Amino acid sequence: MSSDGARRRDVTVADVAKAAQVSKAQAARALGNYGAVSEDVRERVLAAAEELDYRPNELARSMNTGKSHTIGVVVGDIENPHFGLATRGITDTAKKSGFNVILVNTDENTAAEVDAVRVLLDKRVDGLIVAPASSVETQHLRRVHDSGRPLVLLDRSAEGLEVETVAVDMAAISYESTRYLLQTGHRRIAFISTLRTDAAYTAGMRLDSSQISDRLDGMRRAFADMGCAFPEDLVRLNAGGADSIRNLTRDVLQGNDAATAVVASDGLIALSVVEAIQELGLAIPADVSFLMYDDFAWTRLTTPPLTVIAQPVYDMGVAAASALIRQIEGRPPAAAAPEFSATLVRRGSVGVVPASSGESVEVPAL
Amino acid sequence: MSSDGARRRDVTVADVAKAAQVSKAQAARALGNYGAVSEDVRERVLAAAEELDYRPNELARSMNTGKSHTIGVVVGDIENPHFGLATRGITDTAKKSGFNVILVNTDENTAAEVDAVRVLLDKRVDGLIVAPASSVETQHLRRVHDSGRPLVLLDRSAEGLEVETVAVDMAAISYESTRYLLQTGHRRIAFISTLRTDAAYTAGMRLDSSQISDRLDGMRRAFADMGCAFPEDLVRLNAGGADSIRNLTRDVLQGNDAATAVVASDGLIALSVVEAIQELGLAIPADVSFLMYDDFAWTRLTTPPLTVIAQPVYDMGVAAASALIRQIEGRPPAAAAPEFSATLVRRGSVGVVPASSGESVEVPAL
DNA sequence: AATCGATGTGAGTCCGGTCTCAATCGTAGG
DNA sequence: CCTACGATTGAGACCGGACTCACATCGATT
Asked: How confident is the model at residue B34 (pLDDT cuts 50, 70, 90)?
C-alpha cells in the first residue's frame, strides 16, 4: 500500500497551521487567499499544505459562506437526448463559472419532482434549473422562489410563476409546421405525446404541460386560419412506453378516416412511431407523412430523412445556466433576454396526401 | 408577495427548540430521530418544526456525520446517449438508496478529469463512479482510492488499479464480431474511433483506452485465427468532430485497397460514418458493410437496419451504482460479481463482399 | 519624538447540525 | 424509606473552515 492503509482523518487548516508554526487564523487566510498575510507566513503555510496534501473541505466552507457553488438540475429524463443535450449545455456553462451540477431525474413525475426540489434545497444548492413536469402543480416551485433562491425554468413554464423561463415559442412553430402540413394537403393530422392526462383530449381542456398546450393551440389556430375543423380525435396523449406508442400509432393510421400525417412530440416517441409505421408496411411519405419535434442526427439517416422541428437545445441549456448564475451572483438581467425559436427543417418525410385517402383537397397558394 | 420578501435566515434547530420550549439538543434529537426523546417533547418539536417550516441543513449534517449521501459521477460526455443511459441507471439506483448524484463532464480530457475528481473529493462525496478518459494516467484515481473513498470504474479499466470495474468483455465481443465479418468474406475491415493518440496506430502500441485496446486485440486475434493479416492501415484513431469522421470514412472507403466493412466505435461516430457512406453514394450493405458499437433505437429505423454490438448500458450503470453504494455502506461484495457481456445483433448492415472489390475469398464453413 | 494609518497576527466566535456527558427524574427492588 | 438503573434532558464540545476584533509592528507624517 502506498500510504498508511488506516483511514487517516482529513488534513485540516489546524494541521497545516501547526506544521507551519502559525495560528489557525493565519493559515486559513493564506490558504483561503483572503485577509492580510505576510509573504513569509504565506510561503510557510503553502509549503506545509503541499507537504501534508491539504485539501479544503468545501462543505465547511459552504457552511459559513452560504454558497455551495452547486446548482441543482431537475429534468424529466436524461435518457432522452433532448435533456442530455440541454444538460450538456448547462454543465458546460456551470463549469465555466465554477459551479457544479447535481442532477436529478423525475421520470416526469410531479411527486418525484417535489421531492427532488426539497432535497436539493436541503443540500443548499445556490439555485435550481427545473424542467417542470407540470405547469399546473407548482407550489413547490413557488416555495423555491419564496426561499430566495434563484430558479430558472427550462422548456416549460409554470402557471402564475414570475420566473425566468428558457423555452422556444412552441405555439409559433407549431402553427408554422401545421400550416405546412395543411398546405401540403393534409387534414387528418395526428399528434402523439406521452403527456399524462386524466381524460381524453377535448377542446379547451387544461393540460399539465404548457409546452404541449402551446403546440395544440398552434395547431388549432392553423386549422382555424385555413377554415378547417381540427381533428381532435387524432390527438393522442398518455402514450406510455414503446408498445403503447406503437398501438396508438396503429390506431390513428387504420380505419376509415385514418390520419395522413403524424406528428411525434419528441425524439423518443418518434422512434416508436416510425417503427410502427414501418411495421404497418406503410411508406413515408408516400402513404403517411411524418413530422417530429427535435432534430437528432439520426433523423438524417433514415430513408427518407425526416422532417423535423429543430430546437436550439444546447443553447437553451447554456442560456438557462447563464441566467441562473447571473441571478445567483446578483447581476442584473441582460439588456435583452435571448429569444429562442425553433425552425422547421423540411427533409423528406412530408409529402402530398395519397389520392386514395379521403376527399381530394384543393391546395391553396402559399 | 406571499411571504415576507426580505431574505429571512433559514430556520434552524435552535429556532425550533425555542418555539417548542425545549433545549436545542432535545429538538435536534426529535428532528434527527435519534437518542431518547419523550413523546411529549417529540410532538411539541415536530409541531413547531411544521409551524416554522423547518428544513434541516444537509451541509451541516454532512459535516459532522462525514457522510454527504452524494456520489460523484465523472463521464466523458453525457451528450452521448451511451452515457446518458448509463447515467440513468446510476441515478435511478442512487435515488433508491437515498443518494444524490453530482455529474461532471470531462470531454474525454484527462486534465478535466483530474480536476473533476479533485473538486468532487473536496465536496466530500461519499464515493465516485468514473469512466476514465485514460487507462494510463491514473494517479488521480489512485489518490481517490488512497483517500479511503470508494471508487468504481465504468466502461474502462485503469492500469494497476485494483478497483471494482463494471465493463463488458470487449475483447470477446470484438473477436466474435470480427470473426463474423471475416466469415462473411471481409478482409479489409476499418475501425474508426475518436480515441486520441500521439502517433498513428501501429501493432502493439500502448493505447490510452483499455476499451479500444481490447477491441483491437479482439480483432487481431480473430484475424490471426483466420490466418489473415490484420489491416493496421484501416485503424483510424483521433477522429474528432463530425467532419473529421466523415473525412476518415471517405478515406478508408476510397482508393485501390478500400475497406469493405467499417466498424464504428460508438453511436456518435456511427452517425457521421453512415452519413459519409450515404454521401459517397455507397449502399449498405451492397457496397459497404457496417457494424457499430451500442444498440440505439434509431439503428432499427435505417434502411437497412444496422447490425450492432449491444451493451447492457443501463444495467451497467445500475451495477456500478450498486457496487459503489455497497462499498460506501461497508457491506461485503456480492457472492458473484455480475459479468456483463455484449451481444452481436445481426440486422441488415453486414453483407457479403462486393465482387468488384479485391480478390474473391473463400468463405469457410462456420 | 508623538501620532497615524496600513499591515500582520492570534484568540475566539459562528455556521447548523451531531454527539458526549453529567445531571435529573421516575420508579422498581430491597 | 433508601438505592439503583433506565429514560430524559440540557449544556456544551465539535466538525472545518470564514471572519470579527483587539492587539502588536512599523515606516511615514508633522
From this structure: confident
Region at B42 (left for phi over 0; alpha for psi -120 to 50; beta for the rest): alpha
| B60 CB below 7 A from strand C atoms | yes
Q: What mean pLDDT do residues A315-330 have?
A: 96
Average pLDDT over residues B56-82: 94
Could you tell me where the beta strands, DSSP code E, fall in chain B?
A: 70-75, 100-105, 127-130, 151-154, 165-166, 189-192, 235-236, 261-264, 289-293, 307-310, 343-345
Nucleotide nearest to A10 (CA to C1'): D16
pLDDT band at residue B8 under the 50/70/90 scheme? low
Q: Which of B60, B87, B105 sits opposite A92 (nearest CB)?
A: B105
Cβ-contact A181, A194 below 8 angstroms: no
What pLDDT is stored for residue B146 in this prediction?
Answer: 84
Among A68, A79, A275, beta carbon nearest to B88: A79
Q: Which three cell numbers stand for residue B67?
A: 457522510
Q: pLDDT at position A240, please?
A: 87
pTM over 0.70: yes
- Is the model's pLDDT at A1 over the cut of 60? no
- For residue range B229-264, list pLDDT tens digits in order: 999 999 999 998 899 999 999 999 998 899 999 999
Q: Does pLDDT of A203 surpass 60?
A: yes
Give how far B91 is from chain A: nearest CA, Å: 7
Q: Chain B residue closest to A76 (CA)?
A: B88
Which residues interact with strand D by a CB < 7 Å criterion? A 9-14, 24-25, 28-29, 31-32, 34-35, 54-57, 60-61, 63-65; B 22-26, 28-29, 35-41, 60, 63-64
- High-pLDDT (> 90) share of chain B, %: 82
Q: Most A CBs within 10 Å: which of B93, B103, B302, as the mutation test of the A interface? A: B103
Contact flag B104-A95 (C-beta cutoff 8 Å) = yes
Nearest CA in chain B to A55: B122
Query: What are the tens digits of pLDDT across the range B326-366?
Result: 999 998 887 677 789 999 999 999 999 987 644 444 444 44
Can you list the domains of chain A with their CATH numbers?
A: 13-56 (1.10.260.40), 68-166+313-340 (3.40.50.2300), 170-306 (3.40.50.2300)
SS (H, E, C) chain A: CCCCCCCCCCCCHHHHHHHHCCCHHHHHHHHHCCCCCCHHHHHHHHHHHHHHCCCCCHHHHHHHHCCCCEEEEEECCCCCHHHHHHHHHHHHHHHHCCCEEEEEECCCCHHHHHHHHHHHHHCCCCEEEECCCCCCCCHHHHHHHHCCCCEEEECCCCCCCCCCEECECHHHHHHHHHHHHHHCCCCCEEEECCCCCCCCCCCCCCCCCHHHHHHHHHHHHHHHHCCCCCCHHHEECCCCCHHHHHHHHHHHHCCCCCCCEEEECCHHHHHHHHHHHHHCCCCCCCCCEEEEECCCHHHHCCCCCCEEEECCHHHHHHHHHHHHHHHHCCCCCCCCCCCECCEEECCCCCCCCCCCCCCCCCCCCC
